[in-house]
């Protein structure tokens, strides 16, 4: 039976609990999602709080509280939220827990505010700690063939700017490809050439 992790996000300075959540995935994946949502300009209390920490070159601390059967995840979250609130912790959870925010429909006013908040916004660079955590969470993951095909199609007809080309060139300078990587590139070229000779279009 699949399990769920009940976790808390805590203030890195005081150690006080600020958020209670549950997930069926790894804590690292969920943590990176929280950071990503905050950087994208999420307007929930949780995202605003995390964004404030990030602006001060800090991050929340995530702590595993319990592992329960996935069916018990919502109720375990509710009980923990109730308990921490009873103890006086200022949680940024917008609900009493259990149901999350799935199905929430934004009003036109919500959409207008989010649009204004994103206008002209550029995301700042990730901290080294966050970059390493994101890298670990993505390591070993393979994109589906459908996903790769969509990415390939989306790039058709796009022209790179001189600035983009210069940056790509700078990143590649002095970079040495491993024998395995060279073999993969060679095999890919051979497949494309064979497909072209057979009259098959590969995107």
Q: What is the rounded Rg?
A: 22 Å
* Helical content band: 40-55%
Chain-averaged pLDDT: 77
Number of domains: 2
Stretches where pLDDT is under 50 for at least 5 consecutive residues are 100-106
Shape: elongated
Strand order of the largest sheet: 2-1-3
How many DSSP H or I helices? 8
Number of beta-strand segments: 3
Percent strand equals 5-15%
Structural class determined from secondary elements: mainly alpha
Main beta-sheet strand count, sense and barrel state: 3 strands, antiparallel
Question: What order do the SSEs take from the amino end to the carboxyl end, as H and E?
Answer: EEHHEHHHHHH
Distance between the termini: 41 Å
Core attributes:
single chain; mainly alpha; 2 domains
Question: What is the secondary structure topology, with strand pairs?
Answer:
Blueprint: E1 3-10, E2 17-23, H1 27-39, H2 45-55, E3 61-69, H3 73-86, H4 108-118, H5 128-138, H6 145-155, H7 162-172, H8 179-197
Antiparallel strand pairs: 1-2, 1-3
Helix pairs in contact: 1-2, 1-5
How does this model look, in words?
This protein has 203 residues and is mainly alpha-helical. Helices cover 50% and strands 12% of the residues. It has eight helices and three strands; from the N terminus they run E-E-H-H-E-H-H-H-H-H-H. The chain has a three-stranded antiparallel β-sheet with strand order 2-1-3, with helices on both faces. A hairpin with a 6-residue loop joins strand 1 (3-10) and strand 2. Helix 1 crosses helix 2 and helix 1 packs across helix 5. The radius of gyration is 22 Å and the shape is elongated. The two termini are 41 Å apart.
